[in-house]
Design a protein that fits this description.
The protein is of the alpha+beta class and about 240 residues long. It has three helices and six strands.
Amino acid sequence: MKQSLSPRRALLAAAAFTLLQHGACVWAGGPASDAAPVAGARPALGSLTPQPANALPPAGMVDDQATAGASQGDVATLMQLIHDSQLVELRTTYNASYGASLFFYPPEMTYYVVLFQDKHFWRVIRSQDEARAESIYANFVQQTQRLAEVEIRRMQIEAQKAFIDRVIAINEDRARRLQADIDVARTQQARVDDYQRQMQGNAAALNAQKLQAQAQLRDLQNQVNQLQRQTEQGLPAVGR
């Protein structure tokens, strides 16, 4: 909940003429616009506009301190004072897209309490009793708190869902990368297995050839020895 104590007459005056062209009344129907501002975003009060006369307030927005007809007159007066830069903004409170403001008109020692949603005036109450004006303002602030609960909760849930979606996307990407690594590993493993089987077959064949060569070598050595003995038959033994 944010409050402002400084007047912003230039912004108020800049939009007052446009507001006067739309007429003035107290009640507004449903959401003020298709796209409400982000919670806590503060539009210039001079850009606020009165709501249609035949609209109804949201559930829970009740004020028994002024009639619709009297409030319509107060809205018109407030618009003119904004246009003439005669008001001092004493307090403004925002809860999500809902807000309440307390203005002071020094020449008549009069207070104007405003309730609005998005950029549209909802209620305007006039009083010369400071305590009453502060009480109405506090009541309006409580209403903004109550009305903003659903909106704030919706934004929180939206943020949570967006966060979960981002986490899902990150994990999906990670899963794709891991699966790609597994696929590469499996392909390479298959190649290695084929290579190992090939090498084992080659080794077995070479081993068989080696055994055959060894047997052939033994036969040749035996043959050589026999021939050597035959050649040396009848000769003195070597070393004797």
